[in-house]
Design goal:
- The chain is an alpha/beta fold and about 400 residues long.
- The chain folds into two domains: about 240 residues, Rossmann fold (3-Layer(aba) Sandwich); about 110 residues, no CATH class.
- It has 16 helices and seven strands.
- A five-stranded parallel β-sheet has the order 2-5-1-6-7, sandwiched between helices. A two-stranded antiparallel sheet has the order 3-4.
- The longest helix has 18 residues.
Length: about 400
């Protein structure tokens, strides 16, 4: 079994909420000759591990990788302990590869690598699969092997404990919503989930960014900074990974996909070659003011903490939140169309913000995790006053 800590090659995870720039970051990193970063080669491994964790505890779930708001049935340390002791059998791996073949992989061929992945502990399997994919992509000698996967921020603490490096990208939630709910073409995210669900997913990502900040094996960067200061941000990452900087003309012919072709981007609006800043601030022309206010009211503390100034009123009252209308005409069939204005959910949102009020009692670790996903995130947010109208 591979011991915890540095390995050769090292292991790397790129993650973030969907429509946050994870794919751009993954492509940029894979364009470095010493790095192998695959696009979601085995999402089912994350699904399966979390499903097994929940099932072993007798816990019901809609999505195994959910937004975690109000989740008080287990702690991140419980998931980390489970992953550390989780032994995967040959039969389990057979079923997992079959599931991947049915589900589909963004890295074609990852489902055909069963003979290169032996039974063992979760982290053994994960490492073997990452290395097998790197060999398949022609990067057998890479200094770092890894993959990009979304929704899996809750794995970050366990991965950091294991010595796996994590690069976590965050994007302005107003632009995330512009991409998800106001797109002009298919972006492979399926029918839109309710706005409130998507904001809770974004807050989960923000919570793990705030809680993990400062760990030596962790880096987070904002999508906007990656677009505006690409050379500087990539140079910081290569220095952190201990590999040479990119050549000056690394992207002279565009960004290459893993198959060597020119990557045309995965914008919700149009094809783009190279690094385009056109997607920054899209919400200003696409997202109605009442939706911006809804976003800023419910995500305001995290936005301010991560450097996203509020532009709307950011202070909708509970009554105004209840009058809000879902921006997407068609909502994902797994959800109630009234999800974003459900009185119980909005009451929970108001209660969350009330815990950040100046004179609010300090929450214990379990309560902090329930309301703010991670105790470290709560600590980072406590000094940030919530929008005043949200708790009236």
């Amino acid at each position: 079994m591979h011991a915890a800590g540095p390995q050769s090659p090292g292991q790397l995870l790129i993650t973030g909420a969907y429509r946050s720039g994870t794919t751009l970051l993954e492509k940029l990193l894979h364009n470095h000759p010493d790095l192998s970063v695959a696009m979601q080669p085995f999402p089912v491994l994350f699904f399966h591990a979390k499903e097994r964790f929940l099932s072993d505890r007798g816990l019901e779930y809609r999505y195994a990788l959910d937004h975690l708001f109000l989740e008080d049935r287990y702690a991140p340390t419980d998931l980390a302990a489970f992953l550390t002791g989780y032994e995967m059998t040959a039969a389990e791996l057979d079923a997992l590869f079959e599931r991947l073949a049915d589900y589909g992989a963004y890295t074609p061929g990852a489902e055909d690598l069963r003979d290169q992945v032996a039974p063992g502990g979760f982290f053994d399997v994960y490492y073997q699969w990452d290395r097998a994919v790197a060999r398949m992509l022609g990067r057998a000698d890479a200094a770092w092997v890894g993959n990009k996967e979304i929704f899996c921020e809750e794995f970050i603490p366990a991965f950091l404990e294991r010595g796996i490096k994590v690069v976590h990208i965050i994007r302005d939630p107003r632009d995330v919503i512009a991409s998800l709910h106001f797109r002009s073409r298919d972006n492979q995210t399926g029918d839109p989930r309710p706005l409130l669900f998507n904001l809770r997913v974004w807050r989960k990502s923000a919570a793990f960014a705030l809680a993990s900040s400062g760990h030596p094996a962790y880096r987070h960067l904002r999508y906007e900074d990656l677009l505006g200061e690409t050379e500087e941000r990539l140079s910081e990452l290569t220095a952190w990974l201990g590999v040479p900087d990119y050549l000056p003309d690394a992207f002279a012919n565009g960004i290459l996909d893993q198959d060597g072709s020119i990557w045309r981007g995965n914008s919700s609006f149009s094809d783009r070659s190279g690094i385009s800043r056109a997607s920054r601030g899209n919400y200003r022309s696409l997202v109605p003011a009442d939706t911006v206010d809804y976003i800023e009211t419910l995500c305001g503390p995290e936005m301010i903490s991560l450097g996203y100034p509020l532009e709307g009123s950011g202070s909708l009252s509970p009554a105004a939140l209840a009058r809000f209308e879902e921006p997407s005409v068609r909502v994902h069939p797994l959800f109630d169309p009234g999800y974003s204005t459900d009185p119980d959910r909005l009451q929970a949102e108001s209660a969350r913000l009330s815990h950040l009020a100046p004179n609010a009692p300090t929450l214990g670790e379990d309560e902090a995790r329930k309301w703010f996903i991670a105790a470290g995130a709560y600590g980072a947010l406590r000094g940030i006053r919530p929008p005043a109208g949200a708790t009236r």
